[in-house]
Amino acid sequence: MRRLAAIAAQRRAYSATAAPPRVFTRASLASIAAALDAPNRLPLSALPPHPAGLQTAAKTPRPPREAGVLLPLCNVRGEAHVLMEIRAAGLRTHASEASFPGGKAEETDADLVAAALRETHEELALPPEHVRVLGALREEYSLGNLSRVWPVVGFAASHTGEGLADDAPLPDLDLATLVPEPGEVAAILPLPLAALNDRRRHAPHYFRLDGHKPYWKIRCEDLCEPRLDDQEHLEIWGLSGWFLSRLATRLGWTDTPPVYHADDDSV
Predict the structure, then answer these.
(1) What digits encode the pLDDT tens for the residues 80-111?
(2) What is the CATH number of domain 22-188+230-251?
(3) What residues does the Nudix hydrolase domain cover (predicted)?
């Protein structure tokens, strides 16, 4: 009861430290880049070892893989967005879920950034040269496919907008130029940054049911392009929701639900 009351009180009192930008500019991208970690540019062979016990937790004998995902910020129709996708229904893991573009690193990838950009190109036909890498977030493990996932943050646009003033809106990403790979992607999900603070879309959740890792799940079925008839209650959650929350809270764009303590269930 106390936990539910705390969530309700936080919703009433919510005030983000800084509202998300309404549109991305050179100045706003500079501020974002300054707040992020430097992307990991180590060769795949030089990455740190994996902690013990992961294979047992994921119930698989194979060793963990490395994966890179791209969190593409972009302007869409003159409004700031982050570009996501809906995974195809026939995929072996995380089918029909909202996710960021990306996937398993290959031996030919120079590093995790290259892996994220290559996978994004394969899934959405977004050329790597149309993405400006801004920084990164700390890696996290996906237990569904036993991968260490390295999130890279970038800004995607259909052209550079060379010569624009620092406070001028940067060019849009033309969604019509994206070509989802049908075996991997069912739909594009351009998420307006305004949705990060739209309480009508939110439900509290805890990453891997860890009460010290709260975040908001975000309903998004009405934002898919094209709209998916079989998705009546689609949410951004799981590892993708956790990455989105960590990006938004790092930049001061949103809050999180309160941390859960076991004694909060008392009446």
Answers:
(1) 999 999 999 999 888 999 999 999 999 999 99
(2) 3.90.79.10
(3) 64-213
